[in-house]
Amino acid sequence: MAAEYQKNSLTLPDAIAMGTGVMIGAGILALTGQIAELAGPNFPFVFLSGAVVTAFSAYTYVKMSNAYPSAGGIGMILQKAYGATAITAGAALLMAFSMVINESLVARTFATYLLRGFDLAPSGWPVPVIAVAVIMFSWLVNASGNRSVGLFSTLMATLKVGGIAVFGIAAIWAGGFSFEATDQASEYGGLTGFIAATALSILAFKGFTTITNSGAEITNPHRNVGRAIISAIGICILVYLLVAFAVGSSLPLETIIEAKDYALAEAARPALGPVGFYLTVALALVATASGLIASMFAVSRMLAMLTDMKLIPHSHFGMPGVIRDHTLVYTVVVAAVLAVFFDLSQIASLGAFFYLVMDIIIHWGVFRHLRNDIGARGWILLTAIGLDIVVLTAFAILKTQQDPAIIAYAVASIVFVFAFAKTFLYFNPPRPHQHMS
What we know:
single chain, about 425 residues, Amino acid/polyamine transporter I, about 0% strand, globular, disordered C terminus, Inner membrane transport protein YbaT, membrane, AA/rel_permease1
């Protein structure tokens, strides 16, 4: 595997850009309207609650990454906590699938904003066709090498963080610092809705794990992985709050929910006029494309590490190249299939279930087996678990009422993943002292 990873190929700014690239691409663009639908007029504060949950969660990843920087990131943490077991393989696959789900979410978001830019309805066959096309573009960028990804991520992250911040400030200024979204306060929200919406907002932050998964390639990883994670989360919470209040100051709640897949573009039209609308669409396209590229970069490495650890099967299907090239193709195929067959709301829900279950497993494993080795505080790890359970429970309750089918898909998928991992390891037991990068 050493030949497949390039040490010191990603600088600290590259790593921060990669993390913010994934977070902003999925978070503020794809999820604002969905969060508003669940939380009601208090939806901007959901991003704050999501940041709190993420901060407790990130503690585990920072501590582990500083101690053991690895190209496998999540897989490395699980392997050290649980060994070469089905729990490690299953939870790592859940993380990988949640990242691939994120890619399909971002790809469909790209498609909806592109269609809105041409004043077309973001529905029907054009959405999956465009989504698959941008997934293929992202694959081409990733196939060109690490340095291309790092430079592209840094440039795009700078453009979109600055551009989205300008949009937020301009929209709030144009709206006269009022908050239109309070008009229907009695019709939406509630405590359960707010907590459930926090599950979706966590998806807007989970891109920090992209940094964890690239640990072996970041310069001075024992310090810079943690610094990059903290910096990326800090940047994103400021951007999310600014834009959420900007959308709320420009549109009433019902309009935000109606345009939930492209809320920023709709908010730009009344606040900033036609020019602002098209600039916002362009900004959304940049944000989603760069987020997709960064996510694909990380998940392909994670799958390659799991393959190297002999925890998942691998076949090159006649393809040339190294394992990472093959896992990159697998990622593209699965993301494209999801983008074709699921809508944005369903994709986001599946991603939330997968990620939260995996996150709980990681915190518990570190608490039980590794906290003394890495100097982690037990109460922080337990708090992270408790917050995840509360958010996951509220989200499951709400989805049981709104879309019970997605609960069935999520449960069946999780059971299948762990059963698959158990079966594979039963017939292919890993060798003792398996190599770790």
